[in-house]
Amino acid sequence: LAMSFVLSLPGIHSLVLGSEKVEQVEQNAALFEKIVQLSDAQMAEIRENFLDTPREVLLPSLWPNAMH
Q1: Cβ neighbours of residue 45 under 8 Å, at least 6 residues apart?
Q2: Rounded to whole angstroms, how far apart are CA atoms 61 and 11?
Q3: DSSP letters along 19-45, please?
Q4: pLDDT for 43-61, tens place per residue?
Q5: Which of 7, 18, 55, 68 minimizes the number of CB atoms within 10 Å of its CB?
Q6: SS3 46
Q7: CB count, 10 Å around CB of 37?
Q8: What whole-number distance in Å separates Cα of residue 66 and Cα of residue 68?
């Protein structure tokens, strides 16, 4: 869902994912086959559900042990 959301945003044509293990790369590659274009209604619902999500959750640079 996260990949579909990002790739459904206007002007976004590619996605870069970080991985620490080969297994993560393989899992992410498999997920690319499941990406769908989300409707405007779906995008609005996702935005609404995440309105109150703290920045510390959304921004990897604020995660504990994040590389700076």
Answers
A1: none
A2: 24
A3: -SSHHHHHHHHHHHTT--PPPHHHHHH
A4: 999 999 999 999 998 888 8
A5: 68
A6: helix
A7: 9
A8: 6
